[in-house]
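Running this now, will post back.
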Amino acid sequence: MKKILPAVAVVALGLVGCNQQPVQKMNEVQVIGSHNSYKQFIDTHLLSMMVSENPDAKSLEYDNTSLSDQLSLGLRNLEIDVYADAKGGKFSKPGGLEWAGKDPQRPYDPDNLMVEPGLKVLHMQDLDFRSSCLTLKNCLAELKSWSAAHPAHEPVYITMNAKDDTVAKPGFSPPEKFTAEVLKELDKTIRAEMGNEKLVTPDLVRGKYNTLEEAVLAKNWPSLKDAAGKFVFILDEKNEKRDAYIDGNPSLTGRVLFVNAPAGSPSAAIMIMNDPLKEKDQIQSLVRKGYIVRTRADAETKEARANDKTRFNAACESGAQIITTDYYQKSTLFNSPYAISFEDGKYIRKNPLMK
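Update: finished.
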């Protein structure tokens, strides 16, 4: 594992160049993070079966180290996908453990965490189900523990998908719908496990302004100093789920997570725009206005297999504050030199759009 400077030293040494003012606000830096940060590799026999049925399944051939290891490496964005499981046990016996026809390569849920009620963390039920932290509570506990050991760390963004897609095939676990009540449970779990003092919330950013967007356009983001040691949670959903989360909480009053709301909305603050090649100009415009934008350096293993950094370079130039990748380190599952970082192997730098 690479050695990294302490968080304070990174800010002091890595983000201030010649004739530049020190970075002050959290929207003035650009960070690299991971996509599906909890995801572990699919068992070889299971993946081979999946690829034989659908060659596009090769897009799932990536994995991650633990959340703590990623943060220690220097990543400052993670992604955690959650499924509802009110009674527990819904995802405790994935079909994929048997469908490949051979013994699994390693144990699954040896501590029986998946039988407990509560939000679960996985990518795709029954197929891509292996996770470094199987429950949301365990993921959050790991984040808080790492943060306690590194109290001066830069703010960490946590994007979240509220997953309930059904696989219309026999044997697949039917997920529970992500209702307004489940979204409330999501908020409650994050507050309970992290503590309010560890959160940068919409209320904190809005401050004295009438709406969250007004505050963002006034660039009322916390300073890096005030946001040190904290986490920013983002709901990466649109339409019904996003609207249900906002409903009754205008401008996200009292809510934990920011949402992917478009410019012009009272709740607009952090946006998900995943194609920096097509959307670079639009991302630049939004970043200059004060919004924070998340984009992607690669997807579906395509860039990694071709060792193509065109998309990453566009993401850097876009000024998007958050750039996610599946390859902050080279793949261990196929042969490619592709790996993403900024200059000198760092994962955080001064935003190039900020003068």
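Confidence is low (pLDDT under 50) at residues 1-14. More later if anyone needs it.
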